[in-house]
Fold this sequence. Notes:
This protein is an alpha+beta fold. 37% of the residues lie in helices and 18% in strands. It is globular and about 65 Å long. Essential protein required during embryogenesis and all plant development stages, probably through a chromatin-mediated regulation of gene expression. This is Actin-related protein 7.
Amino acid sequence: MEAVVVDAGSKLLKAGFAVPDQKPSMIIPTQMKRMPEDGSPSETSMTEDITVDPVVRGFIKDWDAMEDLLHHILYNGLGWEIGNEGQILFTDPLLTPKAVRERLVQLMFETFNVSGFYATEQAVLSLYAVGRISGCTVDIGHGKIDIAPVIEGAVQHIASKRLEIGGIELTNLLSQELGKSNPLIKLDISDVEKIKEMYACCAEDDLAYEKMSCQDETHTLPDGQVITIGKERYTVGEALFQPAILGLEAHGIVEQLVRSISTVSSENHRQLLENTVLCGGTVSMDGFEDRFQKEANLCSSAVRPSLVKAPEYMPEDLTMYSAWVGGAILAKVVFPQNQHMTKADYDETGPSIVHRKCF
Ligand SMILES: Nc1ncnc2c1ncn2[C@@H]1O[C@H](COP(=O)(O)OP(=O)(O)OP(=O)(O)O)[C@@H](O)[C@H]1O
Ligand SMILES: [Mg+2]
C-alpha cells in the first residue's frame, strides 16, 4: 500500500496516496460543522452554524476536530482499515512549533496506529514539485503568506518570513468593498469567497490600477439577488502588492521576497532569486504571475527574481497543491529507504524523535 500524504491547509485539506505527478485524490474544506451528540438540531444550531476550524493560519489548533477529520479522510475517504493502517507523510508549514509537530506524531502513533510517519516543511516540498532543491518559495494560501529561501533542501529559517495575510484577508476585503458598492445586499462570506475566486485579478502595475475604469459585471447570488462587481476585483489583487489597502504597513509581496533573500549570504542570492516558486491557491488569481514578474523586473537589486515554470508532466494547476505533490515525491523515497519514523522509534524515544528523524 502506498503511503498517504496529507497537506492540511487553513481552508483546504489535500490528501491522497503518494502518486507524484497527479492531483491529490481528496481536496476538501478543512472547516467542519459541530453537530450535537445525538445528531438532532440544537437550539444554537437553529440560529447559527457552529463552525470549527481545526487549522488556523496553517497550524493545527483544534486537535479533537483534526482527529475527526483525519479519521474521515483515512478510513472513509482513502479506505484504510482499522488494525491495518499504512504509512503517512504530513507537510509542515513554516515555523511549526515543536509542540505541534510532537502532538501530531503522538496522535498518529497512539490513536491512528500508523505503521510509519514522516513530516517535512511545505516550502521544501513545493520546490521538489518543480524539480528543485534550492530556491525560494512564496506560498500564498488562505491563512498566511510564507516566504522561505531553501538551500539544498534546507529552509533558511532566519531569512524566512511568515506574513499573516492570506486568502481570508482578501475575501474580507472584497466583502467590505462589495458592501460599499452594493449597500442594499446582505452578503454571505462564503458567497464572497466564491466571487473572489471567480473574479479577483491583478492589474498590470500600480499605475494601471490607479487609472483603471473597468466595466461593472453582474453576478447572481444563490438566493437570486444580483450584485455588480467593478474595480473591487482588482483591489483584491492589488492588496498583495500594496498591503496599505488592507490597512497594513507591510511592504508588497515582491519587496518582501527580495528583503528576505537579502539576509542570506550573498553568494546564494542568484540561485535563490532565479528559482522563485509561487504556490498556494491565491497565486492562481488572474494576472498575479504577470504582475509579480513585472514588479520583479523593476527591482533595483543586481539579481532579480524570476519564476520557475512547472514541468510539463505536472498537472496544470500545480500551484494549488504543490506541497502535496512534493510530499508524494518525497514519500516515494523516505518510506522505501526506511528514513521514516517507526512505531519502535516512537516507543523508544517518544514524540521528540520527530525533530531528529524528520527534516
Ligand atoms: N482564482 C483564485 N483567485 C483568488 N484566490 C483564490 C483562487 N483560487 C483559490 N483561491 C484562494 O486560495 C486560498 C486557498 O489556497 P490554499 O489551498 O493554498 O490554502 P490552504 O493551504 O488551505 O491555507 P494555508 O496554507 O494558508 O494554511 C483560499 O483563500 C481561496 O479562496
Ligand atoms: Mg497551504
